[in-house]
Amino acid sequence: MDAGALGSYRLPMAPPKARGLRAALLAAVLTGAGARAAPPAPEAARPYGVGRDGFDWLETNPGDWLKGWLDFVQDKDVQFESDELGVFTLKLKDVRQLYVERPMYVRVEGRERVFGAVRLSSTTVSVAGDQPLVVPRELLVGITPGGRRERHFWTGKAAAGYTAQSGNTSQSTLDLDGDLTRRTPGSRLRGVYRSAYSEVDGKQNTNNQRADVDFDLNLSAHWFWRAASLGYFRDQPANIGARGELSTSAGYRIFDTDKLEWRVAVGPAYQNTRYDTVSSGSRRSESLLAAALQTDVYWELTSRLTLGFLYRAVATSPAGGQYVHHNENKLSYEIQRHVDLEASLVWDYRHVTRETQDGAFPKRSDTRLVTDVALKF
User: Which domains are assigned to the chain?
Assistant: First the structure.
């Protein structure tokens, strides 16, 4: 093998690979197809360039070696770059070994991050530097190479769905959904946007927008502090001109495995609500203290099918709605590496609604089913 070429390398003892190696790796490894793990390679059987050529080397469970550069290890994901495959992401469970030439920042449960040369084996994480460290692999929280580019911290998803119907009933529906996340070993910044608009026979019956931004600081492998959570919600048919919310909370990861993640956070909140119209003698806006609870679940059902669950409840006085609930259930199917087909069931509930200028009361509950196509980046 040419030591100057980047890409993938199969040990000489293995059957020769055809030119379709890229497609085979992407299909069998990147999508988590779950090929059976080969026995660990002995020291002498590793590619000659490991530890000698200045590049990072990664071995997958099937026994394929990839040569290039590590971007990061975070939230049980490994992002890696090679000239042959470009930038791609593997599940940490699909990576047997990792050798990185450049010193990196490593964070493990119960310790401050350390800096040094890192080797990830099937059972341990070792760091060689001013603060030598060897710990079991399951204690790993994250790895960040020093000097990595800012774009490598970010991931996102944008989705859109449109439905049109004509005939006895004329109806059109537009749904937009966006998700942008910045991750480091010690923190997570996430922004989410969702918008829905629909008309029936030329009359608007849905028009709402929701935006949320959360900033989490990791305290350990299980505990985190949601230092700030900002929320915005507008729903014209529900007579909500704008509702803003600011909160801080303590969080705990109930489950944090390769296939199941479950977080819960609870804390105090401040809420301000402005109504579009109000009855005579009623205040148009209310500012109140509240208590907020949020839980979210990510469950990888298969290598392509995932289920997401989000529930948020805010308890305040009757003037602010008394009990406000928001729930999202999302089923995502990966069509291609960067394309998902999604179906979501969204529910909003407000226990106390505000009387409008014409004396009507909006309904407490609003439920909708959304299907869309999402692009991941």
Answer: 7-145 (no CATH), 153-376 (2.40.160.40)
